[in-house]
Amino acid sequence: MSRIGVTAHRGCKGYIPENTLISFKEALDMKVDVLEYDVHMCLDGELIIMHDSLAVRTTGAKGSVDFMTLEEIKSLDAG
């Protein structure tokens, strides 16, 4: 019998703010098989985990993460 794998899309999205460390931990605690996430590069060349290229949906901030520094992104509230 085949086993169906469970993928946590953006962590534990729907229960905890997506693409956050706590969301990934919760998904792993739920024994998922795969964590799925997207990676973007911000203005200063740092890699960040974020699904959208725009920050507005998850943080309320306007602008593209490609044109923000890591410091600016860290100041946003995704929770």
Structural class: alpha+beta
Strand order of the largest sheet: 1-2
Oligomer: single chain
Poorly predicted runs are none
How many individual β-strands? Answer: 4
Q: What is the number of helical segments per DSSP (H or I, 4+ residues)?
A: 3
Beta-strand content estimate: 15-25%
Largest sheet: 2 strands, parallel
The shape, in one word, is elongated
Average pLDDT, all residues:
91
Give the proportion of residues in helices: 10-25%
As a whole number of angstroms, the C-alpha radius of gyration is 14 Å
Give me the strand/helix succession.
Answer: EHEEEHH
Distance between the termini: 40 Å
Describe the structure concisely.
This protein is of the alpha+beta class. It contains 3 helices and 4 strands; from the N terminus they run E-H-E-E-E-H-H.
Tell me what you see in this structure.
The chain is α+β, with helices and mostly antiparallel strands and 79 residues long. The chain is built from three helices and four strands, in the order βαβββαα. The strands form two sheets. Strands 1-2 form a two-stranded parallel ribbon. A hairpin with a 5-residue loop joins strand 3 (39-41) and strand 4 (47-49). The protein is elongated. The model has no long low-confidence stretch (mean pLDDT 91).
Q: Which SSEs are present, and which pair or pack?
A:
Elements: E1 7-9, H1 21-29, E2 34-36, E3 39-41, E4 47-49, H2 56-59, H3 70-74
